[in-house]
Design goal:
By secondary structure, this protein is an alpha+beta fold. It has 27 helices and 31 strands. Bound molecules: arginine and zinc ion. Arginine binds next to helix 2. Pfam families: DUF3458, DUF3458_C, Peptidase_M1, Peptidase_M1_N.
Length: 885
């Protein structure tokens, strides 16, 4: 909290650190009401810096108790300390700095630094939390070898953990004990971690390819012991996969994971001691959905993969965040695709990107994958840095091929092991290993905004030549009025009556018998380019952007029959799904047009037929069928409409509900038959063979919810008989949404009574209610904030209730009287001082005021009210001020 306007940090101002800290020894004395941190730092001047003058160490919320330079207290005039750190005049070239600070983890509600969560001490240091633990050069390019001593009460805190290997353990006086941890790998302070608590653990082993025997432990509260197996299995899969796909082995004798209830993000890759939000590590059939199991697997893998992409090779500064996050998200996406369904994973990722990331790129907080300035770095753990960053890495993979990409990543790890580097270094390794120039490609890192591709085609019947003309353009974003063309891999195929056509570009010799010449990656790099395919027997339907080969918007004037062709016949799962979605968007357009004209909408028979075909028993993959049957989400539709000039949220909602009901009516019998064909498995398992049919059945149930008793009867039976959370929640949603008030309240209360002791299930219960389409949705959420199950101090609960309401219950969040905005603004205000990171993150839906023309006044009014509050945290200040600009 500061009074003066928080200042921007700029990439252009980067200077190497004045000093380095090769060695760090920390000694923690943990007590409930305070903690003493003794730090002994070996500092040496950095030969790469020519800066002179006082040395500043970062420190926030620390009460300095002792300060020694080379064992002596410095003269008072030679040092000073303020709210942001400690300054030492004319430091020696090399010296030992000892500090003792007192901190109060119990009062730490921001969950950054060292804090207490349900009686357990834990840390979160990324990005700049270490400065809340000790005075330090708290920046990722200062890497140090740590030795950590922890003293605590033995009974209350039997488990004391930090990074690396445990080297000693002994009893102290007064019922306390001491444990020492040494981490041989130099690491930046953001990877430091400490945990102290009364925890149980599940244990396993892994032998690396090189023969290292690694002890794997997952620490949880005793009551959750049975929920760690899935994470353990996922961890072992991830360790094996990284050896096989990237040649990366684990490098310590232990790998620990700790689950904590109060956590701002999903999880954290601290060296050898990953700390996880309980929601991202605990899993069992009764408390975790199918999607939840997959999420645990993906996040466990993500954090594990960081051991190389993030820890062994780390970031020079926080502008390079995507260096580790984009790369690691790409790695975990490929892991999930290899272990599960590649098509589905791609569909999910494309959906996330096209709804949320495109919206971010089109909004007031748009920034490049490598931002060039920030006020609060915590605001930059965004979809752009993570997901778009991963797409940039995927494009490299597409352009270089699997082998070339692997050669590049091998070179990157070899060249930079133990270093703190930049996105440029990553690209240089990729380019050098492939003897190519990626100079233009690098624009993806510096240019914000979603590129738009406009495709036109021409057919010359006489010569059999088919020409695609592609224009690219990236819209202006804040601070970036003009954009340069980007290197864009456009994967495609051409469909003829009998299937995929062989592709020969003008000037090439046709490859006669070569098998796989039906798929092509065109590399775009000019504002406009044409490609002519020759020797075609008929005018093809272009299957464009196969595999979602680039994070772009693509427009081509497909006719509906062409979409239907792609939907059934293209080889690529993403194209098939996307064609179906486009057909649905067109049908929704019909409904909106009819409504606007005051006429009765009619269901597009082509769409009804396509959906019926997906429900046919002959459809091979039920999981893909379910994804294809799902209507585009409201956020997707709002994003599309906003891009076209402005979204009418009520009209979108109305059209979508109309179409759901129309399909429910037209397909009632097939839907019911499909539900019957996919009864619950005898015993639940979160495996593909079950997840697909389950998801198809529950998708059908969602449509049948519009059919009165037909849906209710099925849902009641399913709720009564289900042995897993996926089926229970799907049924509960139908009863709560489509049942009468008595049915709704009885079902919701019954569910709460049964599951109130399982925090993660209660979060689903909160989230389900937050997203119900009921006239009193706002009031329900407000009332739930007073429910004993809610806790403003727990980020998971805030996200489940308030975050879900504002992000996913659009018509009610945007209620005409502004009550939804008031609700959100009130929570942000309450959290501003208490947990600024969460407060700022919650604000996202309110920053999108430009997309909703009829609500601009009300949304801006709430933002302005927040902007005028005294003592805004830098986090909230940055989001509010940038979105009002
Ligand atoms: N590095 C973590 C990850 O794997 C995220 C930590 C974010 N922490 C924060 N305070 N913003 O994605
Ligand atoms: Zn990460």
């Amino acid at each position: 909290m500061r009074d003066a306007q928080p200042r921007s940090i700029r990439l252009a101002d980067y200077r190497p650190p004045m000093f380095l800290i090769p060695r760090t020894a920390l000694h923690f004395e943990l007590y409930e009401d305070f903690t003493l941190v003794h730090a002994t730092l070996g500092l040496v001047r950095n030969p790469a810096s020519d800066e002179r003058g006082p040395l500043r160490l970062a420190g926030e919320g620390l009460e300095l108790r002792e300060l020694l330079i080379d064992g002596e207290a410095p003269v008072a005039s030679r040092w000073r300390c303020d709210a942001e750190g400690l300054e030492l005049d004319d430091p020696p070239e090399a010296f030992e700095l000892c500090t003792t600070v007192r901190i109060d983890p119990r009062a730490n509600t921001a969950l950054e630094g060292l804090y207490l969560s349900r009686g357990m001490f834990c840390t979160q240091c990324e990005a700049e939390g270490f400065r809340r633990i000790s005075y330090f050069l708290d920046r990722p390019d200062v890497m140090s070898v740590y030795s950590v001593t922890i003293d605590a009460d033995r009974r209350r805190y039997p488990v004391l953990l930090s990074n690396g290997n445990r080297t000693s353990q002994r009893a102290l006086d007064d019922g306390r004990h001491r444990v020492v941890w040494e981490d041989p790998f130099p690491k930046p302070s953001y990877l430091f971690a400490l945990v102290a608590g009364d925890l149980a653990c599940i244990e396993d082993r892994f032998r690396t390819r090189g023969g290292r025997d690694v002890a794997l432990r997952i620490y949880v509260e005793e009551k959750d012991l049975a929920k760690g197996d899935h994470a353990m299995a996922s961890l072992k899969h991830a360790m094996r996969w990284d050896e096989e796909r990237y040649g990366r082995e684990y490098d310590l004798d232990v790998f620990n994971i700790v689950a904590v209830d109060d956590f701002n993000m999903g999880a954290m890759e601290n060296k050898g001691l990953n700390i996880f939000n309980t929601s991202c590590v605990l899993a069992c059939p009764a408390t975790t959905t199918d999607a939840g199991f997959q999420r645990v697997e993906a996040i466990v893998a993500h954090e594990y993969f960081h051991n190389w992409s993030g820890n062994r090779v780390t970031c020079r500064d926080w502008f390079q965040l995507s260096l580790k996050e984009g790369f690691t998200v790409f790695r975990d996406a490929e892991f999930s695709a290899d272990l599960g369904s590649r098509d589905l994973k791609r569909i999910e990722d494309a959906t996330l990107l096209r709804t949320a990331q495109f919206a971010e790129d089109a909004g007031p907080l748009a920034h490049p994958v490598r931002p060039d300035s920030y006020i609060e770095i915590n605001n930059f753990y965004t979809l752009t840095v993570y997901e778009k960053g991963a797409e940039v890495v995927r494009m490299l993979h597409t352009l270089l091929g699997e082998e070339g990409f692997r050669a590049g990543s091998d070179l990157y790890f070899e060249r930079h092991d133990g270093q703190a580097v930049t996105c440029d270094d990553f690209i240089a390794a990729m380019a050098d290993a492939n003897d190519t120039d990626l100079g233009t490609f690098k624009r993806w890192y510096g240019q914000a905004g979603t590129p738009e591709l406009t495709v036109e085609d021409a057919w010359d019947k006489d010569s059999g030549a088919y020409t695609l003309t592609v224009r690219q353009q990236t819209p202006a974003t804040p601070g970036q009025p003009g954009k340069a063309p980007l290197v864009i891999p456009l994967a495609l195929g051409l469909l003829g009556d009998a299937g995929n056509l062989r592709l020969t570009l003008e000037g090439e010799t046709p490859d006669g018998e070569q098998a796989d010449n039906t798929h092509r990656v065109l590399v775009l790099e000019e504002p406009e380019q044409s490609f002519t395919f020759t020797g075609l027997p008929e005018r093809p339907v272009p299957a464009l952007l196969r595999g979602f080969s680039a994070p772009v918007r693509l427009s081509y004037p497909y006719r509906r029959e062409q979409l239907r062709t792609l939907m059934t016949r293209d080889d690529d799962g993403f194209v098939r799904w996307d064609a179906g979605q486009q057909l649905m968007v067109a049908a929704l357009g019909d409904v909106q047009a009819a409504r606007a004209a005051g006429t009765t909408p009619a269901l597009d028979p082509l769409l009804a037929e396509a959906c019926a075909a997906l429900l046919d028993p002959a459809t091979p993959d039920p999981a893909v069928a379910a994804a294809m049957l799902a209507l585009p989400g409201e956020s997707t539709l709002v994003e599309l409409a906003a891009h076209a000039g402005g979204a009418d949220i009520d009209a979108i909602h109305d059209a979508r509900e109309w179409l759901r009901a129309a399909l429910g009516e037209a397909l009632e019998d097939v839907l019911v038959r499909c539900v019957r064909r996919h009864p619950p498995a005898a015993a639940y398992a979160p495996v593909g063979e079950q997840i697909g049919p389950r998801s198809l059945r529950n998708t059908c149930l969602g449509y049948l919810a519009t059919r009165g008793d037909t849906g209710l009867v099925l849902a009641r039976a399913q709720l009564a008989e289900a042995d897993n959370l996926t089926d229970r929640l799907a049924a509960l949603r139908v009863l709560a949404q489509a049942g009468d008030a008595t049915e709704r309240e009885t079902a919701l209360e019954g569910f709460y009574a049964a599951w109130q002791h399982e925090a993660l299930v209660v979060n689903h219960w909160l989230q389900l209610q937050a997203t119900l389409d009921l006239p009193d949705a706002v009031e329900r959420v407000t009332a739930l904030m007073e429910h004993p199950a809610f806790d403003l101090g727990n980020p998971n609960k805030v996200r489940s209730l308030v975050g879900a309401f504002a992000g996913a219950n659009l018509v009610h969040f945007h209620r005409a009287d502004g009550a939804g905005y008031g609700l959100l603004g009130g929570v942000v205000e309450a959290l501003n001082a208490r947990n600024p990171q969460i407060a700022a993150r919650l604000l996202t839906p309110l920053t999108k005021w430009r997309t909703v023309p009829v609500r601009v006044e009300a949304m801006r009014a709430e933002l302005s009210r927040l902007a005028a509050l005294p003592a805004l945290s830098p986090d909230v200040y940055e989001v509010v001020s940038k979105s009002l600009e």
